[in-house]
Amino acid sequence: MSTTFNYEPDQLQAGLLALAVHLVFFSLLYFGFAWQTQPVRTMSVDLWRSLPDVKVAPPQEPKAVEVTPPVQPVTPQPPAQPEKLVKPEIALPDKKMKKEPEPKPVAAEPEKKVEKKTAAEIRKERELELAIERERIAVEQAAQEAERAARARAEQDALEKAAQNAALDAMVNEYKAKIIAKIRRNIVKPPDVRDDARAEFRVTLLPGGTVLTAELKKSSGNAAYDNAVERAILKSQPLPLPADVALFNRFRVLLLVFRPVE
Amino acid sequence: MELTGDLSFLHLISNASVLVQLVMGLLLAVSLLSWWYIFLKMFAIRRENRLTEEFEEEFWHNQNLNELFRYSNDGAWHDQGALERIFVAGFVEFVKLKKQQGMDASAVMEGTRRAMRATYQREMDRLESHLAFLASVGSVSPYVGLFGTVWGIMNAFRGLANVGQATLAHVAPGIAEALVATAMGLFAAIPAVVAYNRYAHDINRLATRFDSFTEEFSNVLQRQP
Q1: Alpha-carbon gap, residue A21 to B56, rounded angstroms
Q2: d(Cα B152, Cα A27) in Å, to the nearest integer?
Q3: Residues in A touching B185 (Cβ below 8 Å)
Q4: What DSSP state is assigned to residue A240?
Q5: B84: which residues sit within 8 A by CB, 6+ positions away?
Q6: 10 Å Cβ neighbour count for B184?
Q7: Contact at 8 Å (CB) between A43 and B56?
């Protein structure tokens, strides 16, 4: 009797439903709730907006580079011009040859030979000159191209460097925002501060985020607020710094501006 | 403990101390079990209500008790409702006692009532099974969750003692992960309490119905020749 007595007809169904309830609950917890706190991100968005300007300017230069290549097809023409020049030059000796035989038609054979020799020599010289000329042009072209390539490379490098710098700037600004956020959290605002008060501090940091000096550059006009900010700066040690030690140089001296109202 | 600490849900649970994790695991198991019982009871009570309804209909429309008995006794045990079983037990006892010689009417009725009473109690016990579990989950699991939370917060504050400058950022993650335990305790407790109250009420109503049926059926049997 006991086996039938404990009979429950919908055990599996009930178990599945129970599991479903828990899945729904946990997925609600997991997806339906903003677990991340991201107060600093809003600052970085502003910074990225300024980045495209940096990027937009350089692309104009590459265009200039692209414009110059059409000039290249023009330069190959010089080789054609020398050829045109060559023909008249070669034609000249021919004319001479024709002219010279006329005055001395008789016994001109040895002279002719000499002249032929000279003509051949001239031709050889011309050819040599031509070859030299071509070589020179080729060398010039190569140099030009090398120069152009170097310029393009330099521009590309500059671009990359600019992008890198921009990324670095973004990171530096992000951390500056973090530093300001951390300090701001520690400011105990005195009661009678005007909203447009503005205190500028020059903060010198040590590696690790320890504050070496916090020097008031420009008072807000309210000594209590200035003091509160200074106390907050000292209280916020260690200030958040990027893990990359190489970046520390950009944080060594910080100029921070504090306003009671953000 | 960073300033913009990652407070993701899984992170909170995996970062909690072992005891808090144990509490959370216990609460999860208890919650799963109690929800299983909640659904099980829901189906069982709904089914019992339906079967009782059907049988009462049958009983009052069909005055031939022999036919009704044959019909009721035919089905499998779990196709019968509690009321049907009470009826079968009473009728079987009544017929047996009637066959014996030298029994006076009041003794027969007494025996029949006793048989019905026994079945009724067994059925009530079956219906009320697991309800005690729901009741204790409802009353105890908030405390268990609270215990986990208290423990977690104690740890958070102990960690705070080691830090020179105490800020809210140092305690916040610890408190948040500790509070998850309370949340789980409440998640287990609230449905259990609601279900317990609801089912206790439903079962009470069923019990009243069974009681009144027992009385009415006794009357019907007494009228039998």
Answers
A1: 35
A2: 24
A3: none
A4: P
A5: B51, B55, B72
A6: 27
A7: no
Burial class (CB in 10 A: 0-12, 13-18, 19+), A236: buried
pLDDT digits (tens, 9 = 90+) for B178-190: 888 898 899 999 9
User: Is any Cβ of chain B less than 8 angstroms from the Cβ of A240?
Assistant: yes
- And the tokens for B22? 């144990």
In this structure, are residues B41 and B131 in contact, taking their beta carbons and an 8 Å threshold?
Answer: yes
Can you give B99-148 as a three-state secondary structure string? HCCCCCHHHHHHHHHHHHHHHHHHHHHHHHCCHHHHHHHHHHHHHHHHHH
The count of other CB atoms within 10 Å of the CB of residue B143 is 11
Q: What angle (nearest 5°) sits at the alpha carbon of residue A171, between those of residues A167 and A177? A: 145
* CA atoms of B170 and A259, how far apart (whole Å): 26
pLDDT value of residue B147: 93
CB within 8 A of A36, min separation 6: which ones?
B4, B6, B7, B8
Q: Which of A174, A226, A175 is nearest to A198 (CA)?
A: A226
ipTM score: 0.74
Is residue B99 within 8 Å of residue B112, measured between CB atoms? no
- Chain A positions touching B3 (Cβ under 8 A) are 178, 181-182, 240
For a pLDDT cut of 90, what percent of chain B falls above it? 46
Q: Which residues neighbour A155 within 8 Å (Cβ) at sequence distance 6 or greater?
A: A58, A61, A62, A65
Q: A12 and chain B: CB distance < 8 Å anywhere?
A: no
- Encode pLDDT of A152-176 as tens digits: 989 888 888 888 888 888 888 888 8
Query: Is B62 in contact with B68 (CB distance < 8 Å)?
Result: yes
Q: What is the pLDDT of residues A215-256, one digit of tens each?
A: 888 888 888 888 888 888 888 888 888 877 777 887 888 888
Partner-chain contact B3 A181, CB within 8 Å: yes
Half-sphere exposure of B143 (CA within 13 A, CB side): 5
Which residues from chain A sit within 8 angstroms of residue B47, using beta carbons? 9
Confidence of residue A59 (pLDDT cuts 50, 70, 90): very low
Mutation to test the A interface, candidates B24, B43, B130, most A Cβ within 10 Å: B43
**Measuring CA to CA, which residue among B183, B188, B167 is closest to residue B12?**
B183
Q: Are A18 and B39 in contact (CB under 8 A)?
A: yes
CB pairs below 8 Å between A and B: how many? 71
Structure tokens at B205: 């109503």
